[in-house]
Amino acid sequence: MSTTQERTVPSICESFGNERSRMMDIVLEVQDKLGCVDAETIDAIAAATDAPRVDVESVVSFYSFTSQKPKGKVVIRLSSDVPDIMAGALDVARGLEEELGIRFGETTPDGMFTLEWTSCIGMSDQAPAALVNGLVMPSLGPGTARRGVQILRERNNLEDLQGTLIREYGDGENSHDLVRAAVRNNIRRPGKVIFGRMESGAGLIKALAMSPAEVIRGIKTARLRGRGGAGFPTGMKWEFTRAAGGDDRTLICNADEGEPGTFKDRVILTERPDLLFEGMTIAGYAIGAKIGLLYLRAEYSYLREYLEHVLERRREQRLLGSRVCGKEGFEFDIRIQMGAGAYICGEETALISSCEGLRGDPKNRPPFPAQHGYLGTPTSVNNVETLCCVAPILEMGPGWFSSIGSAGSTGTKLLSISGDCMRRGVYEVPFGTTLREVFEMCGASEPAAVQVGGPSGQMVGPDDYAREICFDDLATGGSLMIFGPRRNLLEIASQFMEFFIEESCGYCTPCRVGNVLLKERLDKILAGLGEKSDLEYLQKLATTIKTTSRCGLGQTSANPVLSTIENFKMLYERLLKEPEEGRQRSFDIQTALSQAQDLTGRESVHFKQG
Amino acid sequence: MAKPKVATTSLCGCFGCHMSLLDIDERILELVQLIDFDRSPINDIKSIEGPVDIGLIEGGCCNEENVKVLQDFRKHCKILISVGDCAINGGIPAMRNMVPLEECYEEAFLNGPTVVNPSGKVPDDEEIPLLLDQVYPCHEVVKVDYHLPGCPPSADTLWEALTALLTDRPVELSYELVKYD
Amino acid sequence: MNNNNQKISLTIDGVEVQGKPGQTILEAAEAAAVYIPRLCWMKNLTAAGSCRVCSVRANGRVQSACTQPIGPGMVVENDTEELRELRRNLIDMLFVEGNHFCMFCEKSGECELQALAYRFGITAPKYPFMFPQRDLDASHPEILVDRNRCILCGRCVRASQELDGKHVFGFVGRGTTKRLAVNAPDNLAQTDAEADDQAVAACPTGSLLVKRVGYAVPVGQRKFDHSPIGSEIENSDVQD
């Protein structure tokens, strides 16, 4: 270990109080400073925090953005999400490989560049996109990607990646001094609750004039339900949390927007951070929490400084801190907890594990977070969009809110629309909007299919286009990927399965093993090696995964297969053949022999090619 | 009426399962009353002659010839049974599945301690069947009707399964008869 | 207040069972001489709920019996066609995920994974074998770690912490790369593991073995040679 390392690691640990529960912050900062968290560094962190080294290694090895092996000074992470692939990410990848002379997963011999694929980075509306260290590079082409690499090499100035690579900043706060990102907001349709209103701050004032129980009653009367996808009534969640014993309670805002194809939280965090923080403060007041955590996904780290700045301003304005708005006895502050690249951490108990400095394994329920959450405290975890509805409800009244949308689904829903359409971006629509209406808005003519709710949702076809987006019909966190007639829907399903395999935490058997098996057979079918009985095989396997998995990831990970079998069965049937002479169609003798033919330099005696 | 025909073979196996079949002891006399053998090492017939009622496969598929024989068995046998762990999960030979094929060839023909190979090349002789990329269990290559696990399956297991099939009883193996070692 | 004499009445497969407050479904069933198949669960350890083999339907919802507390009037389905199939599929998954060569494994006959497969009458798994590359750690003078046989149940991890007061094992990686790790930079020899640690005995398969004691029990006299796993529970007396 070099002397810098010897000093760096303990001082980083100390800056987080040598607390094991701050392990995420510690390893992320070490990764940032040293480029990796290697074995010796793990030992040093373990010593400083008095943690077993295997627990430190466990954290480092769990997250995509921390690594035990050194990476290049510039890590290029290209988003492998379906909309990125549709927009040409493979061409960008080829361009980068040619330019750098390495394959994905490798580092250039000079230690300068590392190429990696990464799951959706929340830029599906401006795909293909990549992260260059923390910097977002949207709307890439093979040419622009190669030029970017050339410029980095020529200037050799890694201190100012932003200044070197970004030519034009995006709209709105994307051009803020603390953001300076090329990202565009793409707010295509502002709605009544979030993007179409001016922020006034009146919601918080009103809330503090009420009792916490009254605030909760207001949220219940507005019939606000969680926007993350599951749709749990927010007021009820707060009530449970408030009712749980003890003095310490925690509010967590889930800004780990990882569902592929979703990017609406990115736009909220950029354009409406005050609305969110106001909502968090009201929520903190309602449940009786002193601390609020904003769990920000690593992919959005480019927004961190800006968000810290907004928080700091709110502290100065007495909107956070002790005696918020002068309210005696109400103390509340917000800390940003960075994630480190793990889709599973969007699951609320995995998110809590991560906040506690652990690997992002979901927890067993019961106990539920409302009773026993973050560091044992009663905890309410709410989605960004949900919390953004809170201040408007308080300000305008529950009746105003519940008059928007449909009976069982009040308010508006933010849709993140990507794929084959004219106008990709964020749409704030009242609940009850049909898919057909959505297509009209975004300029999608006759899509062959649409993926509602990301990979964990469902793929539906024209028969379902009259269906409504709401909790009682098509419930969704808001990701809508549109697929034109030329797309291979089963290949897309396979890409979704790849995503789940990559993002499964591996804790439980069905999700860890089953998804691999599901993709294996689906790929065989796609390769023309499927047979009729495979449909039943896939369905039974998928049902096992869905039924027995421990958390929401595994309970939904088989949906790409299940929903394509349900809605696009003929696509499978077209590929399935009857087996001949009792042979397994999945066994391909030419594939099985090709290596040996190469190694011996001769053809097979029994199985001639062609 | 002609007696039912039974064929047996060993693919990538050690013939231990065949030994276990002989372990049915005096019951073999009873068995011979019930069946005729088609291809089998027991009578040394080298290729399947023709329609066969029950085929017993020992061993998994490690090379092209194994696949050929197995497909041939499947084609001619009404009922095909995987006998023993090698047929069912690759068995000991499948331990090479964790080693790259190139290394397997090099160990066998170039670098192994007992190898004498002046040419320094992996032989391309057609008499040496090409290895598959991995050892495959039989049911991953062809449809298999029954599996009798064990290394080897006990004589009682084989006897019970065979006599059940020959007398039109369902094959129901008791707890003691299903073992993997 | 939790009164230990208090009873909670529930049914398992239609049979009424009396449980105690704080018990999980698995514990209440076991006290009532009903066996619910399980792998990652072990007496005196925190329940993990990771293998999912103990999945039951509790009031219609599939739950892991080892983590789900009982409730009054709860209707539990355990030995149904649906659940038997789901469990069988999970056992099949564990077999194809690792490299389980029973024919030469020292644990054969005493292995809980194998015993469950026997109990379910599995003659061959329905999924293709994955034949993963896994490593083996023979560095420790007394203990062998063979990750080929590891089913990631975490019993050793918990036993080391909760019973041995150590912290010898942990998990690293995620998803398909998740694997059992030891609390040292390189190998088990660098840890404070000892042969008589309960963590070693906790392994349900042959992944953790004490060296030089293998094959001591002759075939025919091993734990699961004649009676299925769980039969000791099914043949036990119902506890009050």
Question: Could you spell the SSE succession of chain C in H and E letters?
Answer: EEHEEEHHEEHEEHEH
As for the CATH topology of chain B, it is: Rossmann fold
The figure for the number of domains of chain B is 1
- Order of helix and strand elements from N to C terminus of chain B: EHHEEEHEHHEEH
Counting structural domains of chain C, the number is 2
CATH class annotation of chain B: Alpha Beta
Low-pLDDT windows of residues of chain C: none
CATH superfamily of chain B: NADH:ubiquinone oxidoreductase-like, 20kDa subunit
Please identify, by name, the CATH architecture of the largest domain in chain C: 2-Layer Sandwich
Give me the number of helical elements of chain B. Answer: 6
Name the strands of the widest sheet of chain B in spatial order.
2-1-3-5-7
* Overall pLDDT of chain B: 95
Number of helices of chain C: 6
* Beta strand count of chain C: 10
Major interchain interface with per-chain residue totals: A-C, 43 and 43 residues
Strand content of chain B: 15-25%
Strands, helices and their partners?
The complex is a heterotrimer of chains A (610), B (181) and C (240).
Chain A: H1 3-15, H2 23-34, H3 39-49, H4 53-62, E1 74-79, H5 82-86, H6 89-100, E2 113-118, E3 130-132, E4 135-137, H7 142-155, H8 161-165, E5 187-189, H9 202-208, H10 212-221, H11 234-243, E6 250-255, H12 264-271, H13 273-287, E7 291-296, H14 304-316, E8 333-338, H15 348-355, E9 379-383, H16 384-396, H17 398-402, E10 405-406, E11 409-410, E12 412-419, E13 425-430, H18 435-442, E14 449-452, E15 458-460, E16 479-483, H19 489-503, H20 509-526, H21 534-548, H22 552-556, H23 559-567, H24 569-573, H25 589-600
Parallel strand pairs in A: 1-2, 5-13, 6-7, 6-9, 7-8, 12-16
Antiparallel strand pairs in A: 1-3, 3-4, 10-11, 12-13, 14-15, 14-16
Chain B: E1 5-10, H1 16-22, H2 27-34, E2 36-37, E3 52-58, E4 61-63, H3 64-76, E5 77-83, H4 85-89, H5 101-111, E6 131-136, E7 146-148, H6 155-166
Parallel strand pairs in B: 1-2, 1-3, 3-5, 5-7
Antiparallel strand pairs in B: 4-6
Chain C: E1 8-12, E2 15-19, H1 25-31, E3 55-58, E4 61-64, E5 75-77, H2 81-97, H3 112-119, E6 136-137, E7 143-146, H4 155-162, E8 169-172, E9 179-182, H5 198-201, E10 208-210, H6 231-234
Parallel strand pairs in C: 1-5
Antiparallel strand pairs in C: 1-2, 3-4, 3-5, 6-7, 7-10, 8-9
